[in-house]
UniProtKB/TrEMBL annotation:
GO terms for cellular component: cytosol. CDD domains: Peptidase_M90_mtfA. Signal peptide: none annotated. It comes from the Bacteria. GO terms for molecular function: aminopeptidase activity; metallopeptidase activity. InterPro entries: MetalloPept_cat_dom_sf, MtfA_fam, MtfA_N. This is Zinc-dependent peptidase. SUPFAM superfamilies: Metalloproteases ('zincins'), catalytic domain.
Length: 278
């Protein structure tokens, strides 16, 4: 009797393993087909003007991504913050930009987004003089954890979304880290389709990273935010901000880097401003 019970449970688990992806896919397709709420459209116009620069077909796809994201990823207020639809839609719109072109899952490792009213304080260890490890308190605008959380400051989300072409977007930055963290710790090399793609990515991004460091050391002006020179993981996240907000400028300044990001994200952001309907 116990043997048949175990066999029945194993069969049920196998059927669930087979059916679950199909049911999830059907549910997501149903969510994408639902009419996009008019109130949400107004939020996008007011809070995320970058959306208006997208071609019409990509705007439609982004809205479908937003609907699935908000159905699956809870956004939880912290520090006494009450989360509103304005906050949820603003975050989802920017978080889904990196999913716009490529066929990727909806950040499968992400369990929740934690939202603070403003910059949040964290304690981080650092190596002091003499090799002594000490705690350093820092105020952050955002943080991505491989353990399934993205933490954001609403004030910084607002600022990042308000200007569509300044190359600064904390949501895109942290969700680029999420893509990088699919395999574990972020290192600036998110998974690629093949070894050849991975090798090319490493070569191109490492060269651009070292070029940014050299330009800053020489006191030269740079398009890319200096924070990108911190390490390869931050370079990828910073480059992603500029890719989505300043595609044409990035293509001019760093054509090889732009081409690599365009291959990875499967969108040509340099063409957005010229093709979008105002």
């Amino acid at each position: 009797m116990a043997f048949f019970l175990v066999l029945l449970l194993a069969l049920a688990f196998l059927l669930w393993q087979i059916a679950h992806p199909l049911l999830r896919s059907m549910r997501r397709a149903r969510l994408r087909r639902q009419p996009f709420p008019q109130a949400w459209r107004r939020i996008l116009r007011r809070r995320v003007p970058l959306v208006a620069r997208l071609p019409a077909d990509q705007q439609l796809r982004l809205k479908g991504l937003i609907q699935v994201f908000l159905a699956e990823k809870p956004i939880i207020g912290c520090g006494g913050l009450r989360v509103t639809d304005e906050m949820r839609v603003s975050i989802a719109a920017q978080a889904c930009l990196p999913l716009l072109g490529a066929t990727r899952d909806y950040y499968p490792g992400l369990r929740q987004v934690l939202l603070y009213p403003g910059a949040f304080v964290v304690d981080r260890p650092f190596n002091a003089a003499g090799g002594v490890v000490q705690e350093q308190r820092r105020a952050l605008a955002g943080e991505s954890w491989a353990q399934g959380q993205v933490i954001l400051s609403w004030n910084d989300v607002l600022q990042g979304g308000a200007v569509a072409d300044d190359g600064r977007n904390v949501v895109v930055h942290e969700f680029a880290h999420q893509l990088d963290q699919v395999k574990g710790q972020a290192n600036g090399a998110p998974p690629q389709p093949s070894r050849q793609d991975q090798a090319r990515w490493t070569t191109v991004l490492q060269a651009a990273f070292e070029r940014l460091q050299a330009q800053l050391a020489a006191g030269q002006p740079t398009l890319l935010d200096p924070y990108g020179a911190t390490d390869p993981a931050e370079f990828f996240a910073v480059a992603s901000e500029h890719f989505f907000e300043q595609g044409a400028a990035l293509q001019d300044a760093e054509p090889a880097l732009y081409a690599e990001l365009a291959r990875y994200y499967r969108v040509d952001t340099a063409a957005w401003s010229s093709s979008a309907k105002r």
